[in-house]
Amino acid sequence: MRLTAAVLDAPDARELAHFYLRLLPGWGVRRDEDGPDWVHIRPPGGGTGLSFQTEPDYRPPVWPSEPDRPRMMVHLDIEVDDLERETARAVAAGARLAAYQPQDDVRVLLDPAGHPFCLYTESQ
């Protein structure tokens, strides 16, 4: 048994996959022959990737969580060398900076479908 991907629902799987391809340099489409509602992307050299599924009734999670609103069930942590530069690049690729930022060395962003993800630098 091996984990091959985390799957993110979205109103448009292809649109969200293209955002992550812009965000993650070197990643490529592994497979999209499963129809217009599925896209699979992988890092260079293989390994666990991301998959995207179109969900017509998708509702984005709320960050930070609020009572009776869709809660974040999972988020992606992405290590970067330069937090300020990569945050700006993520925003230019289509992400939004979350209003609530709980840590100085982490930036919480929302992808175009509203999924939270974190950019962080490894503490030295």
TrEMBL record:
<keyword id="KW-0456">Lyase</keyword>
<feature type="region of interest" description="Disordered">
    <location>
        <begin position="41"/>
        <end position="66"/>
    </location>
</feature>
<dbReference type="InterPro" id="IPR037523">
    <property type="entry name" value="VOC_core"/>
</dbReference>
<dbReference type="InterPro" id="IPR041581">
    <property type="entry name" value="Glyoxalase_6"/>
</dbReference>
<dbReference type="InterPro" id="IPR029068">
    <property type="entry name" value="Glyas_Bleomycin-R_OHBP_Dase"/>
</dbReference>
<protein>
    <submittedName>
        <fullName>Catechol 2,3-dioxygenase-like lactoylglutathione lyase family enzyme</fullName>
    </submittedName>
</protein>
<dbReference type="GO" id="GO:0016829">
    <property type="term" value="F:lyase activity"/>
</dbReference>
<dbReference type="Pfam" id="PF18029">
    <property type="entry name" value="Glyoxalase_6"/>
</dbReference>
<feature type="domain" description="VOC">
    <location>
        <begin position="2"/>
        <end position="124"/>
    </location>
</feature>
